[in-house]
TrEMBL record:
Domain of life: Bacteria
Gene3D superfamilies in the cross-refs: Galactose-binding domain-like
Native source organism of the sequence: Mucilaginibacter gynuensis
Domain (F5/8 type C): residue spans on this chain: 222-402
Keywords assigned: Signal
SUPFAM superfamilies, alphabetized: Galactose-binding domain-like
Protein name: DUF4959 domain-containing protein
One family name in Pfam for this protein: DUF5000
Signal peptide stretch: 1-25
Length: 402
């Protein structure tokens, strides 16, 4: 009897599954099929932009309008389509590499994917962003490589591609370690390192995300000789007035030149909190050195954040060959540079983007001014940390030069 009682239930479930299977193909289709052609857009206005154009228009009155589509060519055989929702009345077409006139067909499309009659307009893009960037592209030698900088007024997503004639035979290559330079800010700026101190022919071009590319800039460069200083020659040179260590013997100055880049506690320099004046630490490099650049690795706080507490935000670097034993920051010292750490994202306090954290993990890197004298002793003077006070936390400090 129990078996007989369940038969109708099983049959109902089987019928439901069959019904669901039959209907599955129609789930994502419009409830109503409308094969009638929708009305066309009207009152189209064109605003030409760098490598692009913005089209503004009036939408047709069709209740089932789904989107508006623009169809155009950026060049012979290079067809593109851009669509915009029915909730807005504007779209931007882009990817142009020239300033020629281009015809654009605009279509209104209903929920059954039926296209309206086309409305044809002509756009004449302004100079493309990758060309503007190339016109301002400048490359200069620096320690261990070269500086690349160019303006990017339209904030386009661009890449600068570097190449070099490594064999001096006219063949340009991109060897391992020489990476493309990406940017989408008002200025694209990058230092490429790892280059030998010999004259070679370098080449650079700018490319956009549609693979349009500029002409090529050829430059003969001789990068300046550079080496990473041997930290085994360094010692802490504590002077009166230098910062008091929070945990002597554990979070000493030596932690920033022990070549251990793990930035967790207690592998860090950490000075006493609650002080009311800028704090300093002093290092003896063992001999006079000429500086090219430095990398400062901040301490990572709980929660994997860097732009907090005692990590330096504004600081100075001073040099001396015969410091006053009184510890006074007097004429025996020369201020080499003032540094301000800026988050790449420009985000407010308490917010760290992926770009911000990558910058901190890789180390805050800065070039010294060209022509700095050679010094044996350096002083790092913290003007302000990320909590707007003066104590110092730091994981590692690395110097380069000769």
């Amino acid at each position: 009897m129990k078996t007989i009682k369940y038969i109708p239930v099983l049959a109902a479930l089987t019928l439901l599954m069959l019904y669901s299977g039959c209907k599955q193909d129609s789930i994502n289709t419009p409830a109503i099929t409308n094969k009638n052609q929708p009305g066309a857009v009207s009152n189209v206005e064109v605003v030409n932009k760098n490598g692009a154009a913005t089209l503004t228009y009036s939408l047709p009155s069709n209740t089932d309008l789904l989107y508006v589509k623009a169809v155009y060519e950026t060049g012979p055989g290079k067809k593109r389509e851009v669509i915009a929702s029915n909730y807005i009345n504007t779209l931007t077409i882009d990817g142009f590499a020239d300033t020629l006139a281009h015809e654009v067909q605009l279509y209104a499309v209903n929920s059954s994917e039926v296209l309206s009659a086309p409305v044809t307009v002509t756009v004449t893009p302004l100079v493309a962003p990758f060309i503007l960037a190339f016109r301002s592209l400048k490359v200069t030698p620096t320690f261990g490589g070269f500086n690349v900088v160019c303006a990017n007024p339209s904030k386009a997503d661009l890449s600068i591609v570097p190449m070099v004639d490594t064999a001096n035979n006219g063949q340009l290559v991109q060897p391992a370690g020489m990476e493309n330079i990406y940017g989408k800010g008002l200025e694209i700026k990058k230092v490429q390192r790892g280059q030998p101190s010999v004259e070679r022919t370098y080449a650079f071009f700018v490319r956009d995300r549609w693979l349009n590319r500029s002409d090529t800039l050829f430059v003969k460069l001789t990068p300046f000789y550079e080496e990473r200083f041997n930290k085994s020659e360094w010692t802490t040179y504590t002077l009166p007035g230098d910062a008091t260590i929070l945990y002597p013997g554990t979070t000493d100055v030596r932690k920033i030149y022990d070549n251990d880049y793990t930035s967790g506690w207690p592998n860090t320099l950490f000075t006493v909190e609650g002080v009311g004046t800028p704090q300093m630490v002093t290092i003896d490099l063992g001999k006079q050195r000429t500086f090219s650049r430095f990398i400062m690795n901040p301490f990572v706080e709980l929660g994997n954040v860097y732009y907090v507490r005692g990590n330096p935000k504004d600081f100075e670097i001073w040099g001396s060959n015969s410091p006053n034993v009184s510890g006074a920051l007097d004429a025996s010292w020369t201020k080499i540079m003032t540094v301000n750490i800026v988050k790449p994202s420009g985000s407010p306090s308490g917010v760290e983007t992926a770009a911000d954290q990558t910058y901190a993990r890789d180390g805050w890197e800065f070039d010294f001014p060209v022509g700095v004298s050679a010094y044996r002793y350096i002083r790092i003077r913290n003007l302000r940390n990320w909590s707007n006070s003066y104590f110092i936390s730091m994981s590692e400090f690395t110097l380069f030069g000769k």
